[in-house]
Design brief:
Blueprint (H helix, E strand, L loop, with lengths): L4 E2 L1 E10 L2 E6 L7 E4 L6 H9 L26 E8 L2 E10 L8 E6 L2 E2 L4 H6 L2 E4 L11 H15 L3 H20 L5 H35 L7 E6 L7 H7 L1 H7 L10 E6 L4 E2 L5 H23 L1 E2 L1 E4 L8 H14 L3 E5 L13 E4 L5
Parallel strand pairs: 1-13, 4-15, 4-16, 9-14, 14-15
Antiparallel strand pairs: 2-3, 2-5, 5-6, 6-7, 7-8, 10-11, 11-12
Helix pairs in contact: 4-5, 5-6, 5-8
């Protein structure tokens, strides 16, 4: 096995997924892949399908039922991908699971024909990182969007992070329900608060370690984009978090919300050269800082796992000027990552036309 392994897709098949009734892309090379075509043709949907090969909810975070082709709502969507992984060739299939008595749709995942029990098995198989136009608003949008963004990053480094977040949220909701309904079961409340505290400790530890790795990657890898300094705000680090939870019961009951905890932190990003919070930077600076974060995540993952992740860049042309676009292309080629890029016109990718594979969509498949 080489010192650094390159993860990549060998083939991709979509059935009844979004606007693609049937889509096949075989014999994919381990080089950048550029997908072009008019708006609405389904370029982003292909990237979303690839993102669902990971353990996450995908680059749009859509509900499982929303992924079905609207012309065939009774048919189950299906994504199948052949992968080159550090563990050898693997086939991953994920699809909508619709069973009677289910309150909501779920999705199932098979690896080499075997149904997996935990999606963390996917996270151990490969990492996928993406940049979409909506992520441009991360710095100026609500803190909830930054939390989703950053916790997705953390999950790429610590496979149990999503599970710990779910455990924390379940205990938090149950505790709040008891408080709002004035059910003073001390034993039950204490057990839920202990569960929250245990999960919060694991969550905080993973977040802090990820911040350290990202800041280190930013400093050590001289990308052509502005450097950022990352930190966490309102992360419950104190040893007396459990005591504070007990003391806040009255306030939480009267306000109808949990007023402290891991669900209220924020990600602070500072443009280092100007010592300025990213939310006050120009639009161009914010885009460049976001690229810095995406690349820092990539370099940090390579450092930790010795595996190059798959990169997805949706409509990259529309939200980057020609200079930053060219710099990004240079970084992609330097990384030797299989990167998937979408855009309207193949000519916009002339910088990498000799090094990439091109797929132009003429119609919905």
């Amino acid at each position: 096995m080489p010192d650094i392994f390159q993860s990549s897709l060998k083939s991709l098949k979509l059935y009844n997924f979004r606007n693609h009734k049937v889509f096949r892309f075989d014999n994919i090379e381990s080089i950048p892949v550029v997908i072009t075509g008019r708006n609405g043709i389904g370029k982003t949907n292909i990237l979303e399908a690839i993102s669902l090969i990971s353990s996450s909810k995908g680059l749009k975070g859509a509900r499982i039922s929303e992924l079905n082709n609207q012309d065939n709502p009774d048919y189950i969507w299906n994504i199948t991908a052949e992968l080159r992984t550090v563990y050898g060739p693997k086939e991953v299939m994920t699809y909508r699971n619709v069973k009677p008595n289910l309150k909501s749709d779920t999705r199932l995942v098979q690896i080499d024909g075997e149904l997996i029990k935990k999606k963390t098995e996917l996270a151990e198989l490969l990492n996928i990182i993406w940049l979409t136009p909506s992520m441009q608003q991360i710095f100026i949008g609500p803190s909830s969007e930054r939390r989703v963004f950053f916790d997705q990053i953390v999950s790429n480094f610590f496979v149990e992070h999503s599970s710990n977040l779910s455990k924390y949220e379940q205990s938090r909701r149950e505790r709040l329900k008891l408080l709002k309904e004035n059910i003073g079961d001390e034993h039950w409340l204490s057990a839920l608060e202990q569960n929250m505290c245990d999960s919060a400790n694991l969550i905080s530890d993973a977040r802090i370690k990820t911040i350290i790795m990202l800041n280190k990657a930013i400093e050590e890898n001289n990308t052509p984009f502005p450097k950022a300094i990352l930190s966490l705000i309102n992360e419950p680090l104190s040893a007396d978090f459990l005591i504070k939870l007990k003391k806040s019961r009255g306030l939480d009951a009267s306000s109808g919300k949990t007023n402290l905890g891991s669900h209220l932190y924020d990600l602070e990003v500072i443009f280092k050269d100007k010592n300025m919070p990213a939310r006050y930077c120009s639009t161009g600076e914010q885009k460049a800082l976001m690229l810095n974060l995406i690349l820092a995540q990539t370099y940090a993952l390579i450092e930790k796992y010795k595996v190059i992740p798959i990169l997805l860049f949706d409509e990259i042309i529309s939200h980057l000027d020609s200079i930053n676009r060219g710099l990004l292309f240079e970084e992609i080629l330097k990384l030797k990552a299989q990167s998937w890029l979408t855009g309207l016109d193949p000519k916009s990718f002339s910088n990498i036309e000799k090094h990439a594979s091109f797929l132009h969509l003429e119609s919905n498949y």
